[in-house]
Amino acid sequence: MFEICPVRFWEDDWQDNHDAEVVRGGPNRTLSLAVARQNHLTTGASDPVDLPHVRGPTSDEV
Predict the structure, then answer these.
(1) What InterPro entries has UniProt attached to this entry (predicted)?
(2) Which of 33, 37, 39, 48 could form a disulfide with 20 if both were Cys (CB 3.0 to 4.6 A apart)?
(3) Cα–Cα distance, 49 to 26 (Å, whole number)
């Protein structure tokens, strides 16, 4: 718990598919999991402001 993904820079807050559209606040600020996923696809990070903190996935993370 409370791990930050080095690929997406999303902090695990136990949000999952059943509530992916909910904005919980907290460590992921104003992002829902659904928006963070879309951001990652388009920018490479869950939130574009965090782009300097991410890295590409390793072969076992793809």
Answers:
(1) Cys_rich_CPCC
(2) 33
(3) 16
pTM: 0.83
DSSP annotation of 45 reads S
- Integer Cα distance of 39 and 48 in angstroms: 7
Helix (H) or strand (E) holding 33: helix 33-43
Q: For residue 30, how far is the Cα from the chain centroid?
A: 12
Strand, helix or coil for residue 13: coil
End-to-end CA distance of the chain: 21
